[in-house]
Amino acid sequence: LALSLYVGLMVLLLEVFEVTLTLPGVAGIILSIGMAVDANVIIFTRIKEEIGVGKTVESAVKTGFAKALSAIVDGNVTTLIAALVLFWRGSGTVKGFATTLALGIVLSMFTALFVTRFILRALFRLGLQNPKLYGVKKERKPVNFLGKRNLCFVLSLVVIAAGLVSMGMGMASGNGAFNYSMEFKGGTSTNVTFNEEMSQERIESEVVPLVEEITGDADVQTQRVSGSNEVIIKTRTLNMEEREAFEKAMEDSFGVEKENITAESISGAVSQEMKQDAFVAVVIATICMLIYIWFRFKNIRFAASSVLALIHDVLVVIACYAAFKWPVGSTFIACILTIVGYSINATIVIFDRVRENLKEKRHDQTIEEIVNLSITQTFTRSVNTSLTTFVMVLVLYIMGVSSIREFALPLMVGIVCGTYSSVCLAGSLWFEMNRRREKALAAAKEEARAREKEAREKKKNKKKQ
């Protein structure tokens, strides 16, 4: 119910603020829906935990919201900071992404913290008071995630290295590090006026495969001109022979006469300035997120490990772009920005639990046990949130047109990678940083004690003399 209201309000705000809805804008909405789902999952998990320790439903709901507040606020505010920086420094499609993301984050926090709470309390007052209706989460034995940290580190490095090798091989062969689409390289735009109006389904199933066969390239974009039989087909730059083959194929397959086919060259729409603006915006946003996490957690190691996990996700997705030759266009920027926001939110939820467990630490508990316990406690949330967002993007991939699929496929990889890095890497990185600091402090104390002992010995010998 809360998510239904969220979607309705989102559509209303897009209309009120007259937001131009681009593909990156849709990406911002997808990310904010994922965060709205995440906020509810965090709340419900907390409520189940409270019921599991023996509290009444009414008390569990109240305590669950209170304990979930810090994780929800920190995760959303961190991503909101990134959205504001992207809007301030970005241009074009980046601004579209930032606008819908910022609107979505504000709405998701409102629906999760107020609407969901109101609905739960209303259901409770209506007589739905049986704990079984809310679920009971009992304490699980902690899984030793940190015990596999070296294996995870090696696996991540291998994947990133494979991507770098693929980029190097592409550059060595003269094809470039990435498969840049026409938004970067330019191409040919061909207007074809068919003898009858073509549906989008028919264009995708009959026209596009024919064009791909001529160009030998899967990067084909189509657009129907409303109120006419005209279709705009954008491809890589075609030479004279390919243009003639294109005209012949249209004539043989659809009976289109040559005078109804016109072609012109198009330049790369994604300018160098736009790419630089996007890069600078992401760098500034990352620094601002690092500062906020440092301020909130009072520990630079939480911030540093969060950013390292985020960089890991970006590098893995870039490696996949290089290795599988996915087209790099305007959707690439939107995809990377979405993964940045999604990854940092998932990591903060785990670190919020680490922070809470450190405050309640028993004298016989080690830091390693605390981290393993925290990841285990939030594991259900990580899986549930990732699964719901993954299914949503999977539906986009199955039902969407080629440009949507170009965006959805890398995003699915990013969602899986973001979950993996949050669960398997972020906590391990923080633990390693913390352990090294403890070792350094212990060594410094030992050295100080040794110097103090040496000074006492010298003083003692001097007195004897």
Structure description:
- The chain has 465 residues and is mainly alpha-helical.
- It has helices at residues 2-16, 23-52, 57-89, 93-125, 149-172, 182-185, 200-215, 240-254, 272-297, 300-324, 330-359, 367-399, 402-464; strands at residues 179-180, 187-193, 221-224, 230-235, 261-266, 327-328.
- A hairpin with a 5-residue loop joins strand 3 (221-224) and strand 4.
- Helix 2 crosses helix 12 (367-399), helix 3 (57-89) runs antiparallel to helix 9 and helix 9 runs parallel beside helix 11 (330-359).
- The chain is globular, with a radius of gyration of 27 Å.
- 39% of the residues are buried.
Which properties best describe this structure?
about 475 residues; mainly alpha; four-stranded antiparallel β-sheet
Order of helices and strands: HHHHHEHEHEEHEHHEHHH
Total number of strands:
6
Q: What general outline do the C-alpha atoms trace?
A: globular
| Count, helices | 13
Fraction of residues in H or I helices: over 70%
Main-sheet strand order equals 3-4-2-5
What's the arrangement of secondary structure elements?
Blueprint: H1 2-16, H2 23-52, H3 57-89, H4 93-125, H5 149-172, E1 179-180, H6 182-185, E2 187-193, H7 200-215, E3 221-224, E4 230-235, H8 240-254, E5 261-266, H9 272-297, H10 300-324, E6 327-328, H11 330-359, H12 367-399, H13 402-464
Helix pairs in contact: 1-2, 1-4, 2-3, 2-4, 2-11, 2-12, 3-4, 3-9, 3-11, 5-10, 7-8, 9-10, 9-11, 10-11, 10-13, 11-12, 11-13, 12-13
